[in-house]
Amino acid sequence: TSPIKNVTVNPLPAIPSITANGNTTICQGSTVTLTSSPSTAYLWSNGSTSQSITVNSSNNYSVTITDGNGCSNTSPIKNVTVNPLPAIPSI
User: Fold this and answer.
1) pTM score, two decimals?
2) Which are the contacts of 54, defined by CB distance < 8 A and separation ≥ 6?
3) In this predicted structure, what is the pLDDT of residue 3?
4) Please, which of 33, 63, 76, 79 could form a disulfide with 21 given CB 3.0 to 4.6 Å?
């Protein structure tokens, strides 16, 4: 007979949430900071690996978190829109 082996199945971490420090529709030249819910490791869709990113370009951003057991989960997309500044008025 074979010895009994214990198998541990770790649950996935909760789906991460992304919060913004302001409006996600901003004017050209402005920034918005996106912050992930806490975890052990982070990988943003733009390649950043910190808990927060500061962005200044229109894009769809998401974050994949990895917990201490090596299990991962990905957030829903957070859309950031950057509107161009109006033309400089002539006098």
Assistant:
1) 0.88
2) 31, 32, 33, 34
3) 87
4) 33
